[in-house]
Amino acid sequence: MQQIEQLAKILLAKKNRRWIAVGVLIITVLLVAHFFFSNPQYIEQLAHVSPSVIVLVILLNIPATVALAWAYYAILQLCGKPIAMKENILLTAYSSIINFFGPLQSGPGVRAVYLKTRHKVRIRDYMLATLVYYAFYATFCALFLLVGTRPWWQTALGLLVVAGFSTCVIGWFIRRDSKRGEKGAPSAFAFRRSTLIALAIAVLLQITCNASYFYVELHAVNPSISISQAISYTGAAGFSLFVSLTPDAVGFREAFLIFSQQLHHISTADILNANIIDRGSYVLYLVLLLLFTLSVHARDRLQLRNWRHPGTTKESV
């Protein structure tokens, strides 16, 4: 944590902010261009897909992003540091873009540094709240993976295993955190019942939206695929989040989906074709999201120019 704080202090020093802003813009443009040049199949494949399918997938990504923003808002409520919803939506959009085009799923790191610097959100509180989010996410993914294809007792057993493991991880983190306090930043985290319910609903809505556009993509490549298969497919795809080291878990998601074929019974060819549609449509969606953030002056709305290190006495704007 100390290393992250020191890095934030260097990056957000007044003399460095202007160059960093220019650098971030240039790097973002280069990453997007590199992605398109390195993966031309995403655009080429879309040329053979009905435009209505692409439009529908893009539209279904909108409520998924809104659900994600709601989940992030609940995470900050657990941390005792809620922020304005407009700022949260803009930050969600920006971190989603960085998370895809940046290295090693860097969106959460961008959010953590921003929230630490601008809103003094304790890093360990944010990590604990994020673990709670992941616990709900993993549990609902297990539910989706099993509920449509396996007997009820296997579904219940799977949920108990995932929920039990998640609880152990959260308990381990709390015990570890109690022994290593963050200097100068007392914990504001609390397991608020209403917030936990809101977070669970937001995560469930997010995964349901994912299932909706996955079904559209799968139905486009194979109309015989059922809704229950798409639900199971969504659960398997969701688990790739926990090992994704590439943009949008490229390669990892396919591996999870192929490994779980005995549950959703979707062929390898359909998996690969559907994922090309998914990622091609998602890249277009992120481009639109980038245009949205630029059109509403996200950089100024988030006041990136006015970030201050938490240790300074000058008030953040």
Describe what this molecule looks like in 3D:
- This protein has 317 residues and is mostly helical.
- The chain contains 14 helices and no strands.
- Helix 7 (123-147) crosses helix 9 (193-221), helix 9 (193-221) packs across helix 10 (227-239) and helix 9 (193-221) crosses helix 13 (268-295).
- The radius of gyration is 20 Å and the shape is globular.
- Mean pLDDT is 80; it is low at 1-5 and 307-317.
What is the strand and helix layout of this fold?
Elements: H1 2-11, H2 14-38, H3 41-46, H4 51-78, H5 85-101, H6 107-119, H7 123-147, H8 152-179, H9 193-221, H10 227-239, H11 252-259, H12 261-264, H13 268-295, H14 298-301
Helix pairs in contact: 4-5, 4-7, 4-9, 4-13, 5-6, 5-13, 7-8, 7-9, 7-10, 9-10, 9-13, 10-11
Average pLDDT metric: 80
What would you report as the Rg, rounded to the nearest angstrom? Answer: 20 Å
> Tell me, what's the shape?
globular
Query: How much β-strand is present in the residues?
Result: under 5%
Terminal residue distance: 24 Å
Question: What key phrases describe this protein's structure?
Answer:
0% strand; globular; mainly alpha; disordered N terminus; 317 residues
Structure, briefly:
The protein has helices spanning 2-11, 14-38, 41-46, 51-78, 85-101, 107-119, 123-147, 152-179, 193-221, 227-239, 252-259, 261-264, 268-295, 298-301.
